[in-house]
């Protein structure tokens, strides 16, 4: 059976208007899991930027973070020979980064709202995944945060990604250098690739903070996270230690706990 529904987009973020995925939360057990398939693709979408003018700044920033993460989850793949795909992804990231402060300062800026709305669609219709296997660790790690604490998904992603990035950076330093230089505007120190990569991660972290996103679990939930909560999130994310996540770098239960601790 083909989907017979449409979407009237009011918050550019999840890319539901052009994607096949959704997320389902089971309140019993605080489990949040993704569900994907062509039956989830809508037949039409009404996309009017004016419908986003009244979005609160926090929700606007959460949406911006989510669409950037949809792009980055595909950008960080084992494959690094898709020049056009990479260029498209970087253009989306640069555009959103440039226009985020504009719409936060002037929520009724039609042109900027329109560009961000279009970016949200392109970020999750798999255009930026062409020829790439993707990673998706940040999303899976975040699902445990929002499942346990009921926080906004975009805010949780802003917390998890910098720690994930620093943890996996040695896997392919040049990939992070490319992001740093081509998206974040960091000067390329050819004598210190790792330093360039880390400065790029820090610049992304600073960007998230600049648009009102938290960058630590403490900021996110308003208190210090307990050790047993970290252990529980890693247990759930790893399916009791029986599953690994990640395509850019495979992460086991121990890796998950380390990333959560880095994000405290």
List the topology elements:
Blueprint lengths: L5 E3 L12 E6 L4 E6 L7 E3 L10 H19 L7 H23 L4 H15 L12 H13 L3 H16 L4 H10 L10 H18 L6 H5 L5 H11 L15 H10 L2
Parallel strand pairs: 1-4
Antiparallel strand pairs: 2-3
Helix pairs in contact: 1-2, 1-3, 1-5, 2-3, 4-5, 4-9, 5-7, 5-10, 6-7, 9-10
Apparent shape = globular
List segments where confidence is low: pLDDT < 50 over at least 5 consecutive residues: none
The strands making up the biggest β-sheet line up spatially as 1-4
- The overall strand count is 4
Mean pLDDT: 92
What characterizes the major β-sheet? 2 strands, parallel
Report the portion of residues in β strands: 5-15%
Helix content: 40-55%
Structural class: mainly alpha
How do the SSEs run, as a string of H and E? Answer: EEEEHHHHHHHHHH
Radius of gyration over all CA atoms, rounded:
18 Å
Assembly state? single chain
**Termini gap:** 45 Å
Tally of DSSP helical segments: 10
Can you summarize this structure?
The protein has 264 residues and is mainly alpha-helical. Helix content is 53%, strand content 7%.
Task: Explain what this protein looks like in three dimensions.
The chain is mainly alpha-helical and 264 residues long. 53% of the residues lie in helices and 7% in strands. The protein has a two-stranded parallel ribbon. Strand 2 and strand 3 (31-36) form a beta hairpin. Helix 1 (57-75) runs antiparallel to helix 2 (83-105), helix 4 (137-149) crosses helix 5 (153-168) and helix 9 (227-237) crosses helix 10 (253-262).
């Amino acid at each position: 059976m083909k989907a017979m529904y449409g979407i009237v987009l009011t918050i550019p973020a999840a890319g539901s208007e052009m994607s096949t995925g959704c997320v389902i939360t089971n309140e019993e057990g605080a489990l949040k899991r993704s569900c994907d398939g062509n039956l989830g693709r809508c037949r039409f979408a009404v996309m009017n930027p004016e419908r986003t003018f009244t979005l609160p700044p926090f929700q606007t920033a959460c949406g911006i973070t989510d669409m950037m993460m949809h792009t980055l989850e595909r950008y960080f793949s084992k494959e690094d020979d898709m020049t056009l795909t990479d260029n498209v992804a970087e253009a989306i990231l640069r555009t959103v980064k440039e226009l985020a402060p504009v719409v936060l300062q002037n929520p009724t800026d039609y042109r900027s709202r329109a560009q961000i709305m279009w970016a949200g669609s392109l970020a999750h219709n798999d255009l930026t995944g062409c020829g790439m296997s993707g990673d998706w660790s940040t999303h899976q790690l975040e699902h445990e945060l929002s499942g346990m604490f009921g926080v906004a998904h975009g805010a949780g992603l802003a917390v998890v990604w910098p720690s994930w990035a620093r943890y996996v950076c040695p896997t392919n330093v040049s990939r992070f250098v490319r992001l740093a230089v081509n998206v974040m505007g960091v000067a390329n120190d050819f004598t210190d690739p790792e330093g360039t990569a880390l400065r790029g991660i820090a610049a992304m972290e600073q960007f998230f903070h600049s648009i009102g996103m938290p960058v630590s679990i403490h900021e996110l939930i308003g208190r210090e996270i307990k050790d047993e909560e970290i252990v529980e999130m890693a247990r759930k994310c790893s399916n009791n230690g029986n599953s690994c996540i990640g395509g850019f770098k495979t992460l086991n239960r121990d890796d998950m706990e380390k990333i959560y601790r880095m994000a405290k």
